[in-house]
Amino acid sequence: MDLVKTLIQEQTDKICKTYKIEPNEVQELLSQKIKGNGELVDIINSSENLKQVYRTKIFKQFIKKAKKEMYYSLRTYQKESEDLVDSHISSRERSEHIDKLFDQIDGHIKMAEVILDIGGGLFPASFPFEKYPNLKQFIWVDKDKKAYESLKKENYSKLVLHNYNIGENLWEEYLPEGLSEFDFVFMLKLIPVVNRQEKELLEVISKVPFKQALITGSKEAMVKKIDIEKRENAVIRGFIDTFGFNIVKKIDLPNEFGYIIE
After folding, report:
1. What pTM was estimated for this model as a whole?
2. Confidence of residue 71 (pLDDT cuts 50, 70, 90)
3. Distance between CA atoms of 122 and 85, rounded to whole angstroms?
C-alpha cells in the first residue's frame, strides 16, 4: 500500500499547484475515492511502480473525475460555515485584506449617507457600520437568494435588502425618497462577471445615478492559480471608457484591484 500513499502525495502536490485547495482536502478525497475504486486498487497492487499506474486508462479516468469534483466544489460560491463572511467565496477571499480596502476608500465614504451595493453577495457582513456614523442606509441589490436570507437573519439596522436581478427595477426605485443619486456605489468583482455572463446588463449598470463608485476585479482566478488581472483590467477599463466615467483613484489589494470613479 506504499504505492497508494505515494500516489496520493504526488497527485496532491500536482493539484495544489493548480487549484486553490488545501492539501489535506485533496488527500482525504483521493483516499476515499481510491478505496471505492476496486479496479484502480487492483492495478496499483499489481504494478511495480506508479509510472505503470499512471499510464492506465482506469487511473486517467479516475484522476479526471476527481479533479472535476474538486473544481465544481471550489466553484460553489456559498458553503456552510458558522462565520457568515467565510461562507461566501468572494467575501472570504477579501476578508484577509478588508482593513486595507477600507483604509484606501475611507476618505470617499466617510461622509456618505446612502450607499448602494450591487451584486455584493455577503459583503455587508464585512462592512464596518460602526465606523461610519453618517451612513443612514446601505442598500443591497442582488439576485442571490441564499445571501439575501443570510443577511436578513443578521438584522443589520442600516441595511436595506432587495433580492432582485440587475435591471428588474429602475435604480431610482432603490433610492430613499427625495434623493436623486447614491453617495457611493460598490461594484465589487461585478463588471467582469456581468461582461462574461450578461453583457447586455453593462449598459443598465452604467445608468446607476451616483457621486462616486468603486469597481473592482480579481487578480487571480477563483478556482485555479492563474493570473487574470490583465484580462479583468481590460474589461473594467473598457466599461469606464465606454460609458465616460472618470477615474479618481486606483485601489490595490493583494488579490483584488479596482478604481474609484465618478
Report:
1. 0.74
2. confident
3. 6
Of 66, 81, 82, which Cα lies nearest the Cα of 15? 66
State the cell numbers at 120. 455584493
Helix (H, G, I), strand (E, B) or coil at 210: strand
* CB distance 190 to 157 below 8 Å: no
Q: How far apart are the first and last CA of the chain?
A: 63
Contact 26, 70 (CB under 8 A): yes
Phi, psi angle pair for 19, to nearest 5°: -110, 150
Count CB neighbours of 116 within 10 A.
27
State what percent of residues in the chain have pLDDT above 70.
91
Residue where the block lists cell 471550489: 74
CATH superfamily of 85-261: Vaccinia Virus protein VP39 (3.40.50.150)
In the block, cell 453618517 appears at 134
Determine how many CB atoms are found less than 10 A away from the CB of residue 96: 11
Numbered ranges of CATH 3.40.50.150 in the chain = 85-261
The answer on pLDDT for 76 being more than 90 is no
List CB contacts of 23: < 8 A, sequence separation 6 or more. 12, 13, 16
Structure confidence by residue, pLDDT tens digits, 221-251: 766 778 899 999 999 999 999 999 999 999 9
Round to whole Å and give the CA distance between 206 and 194: 12
Asked if 62 and 210 count as a contact pair (C-beta separation under 8 A), the reply is no
Task: Compute the residue count for the chain.
Answer: 262
For residue 141, count other CB atoms closer than 10 A to its CB: 22
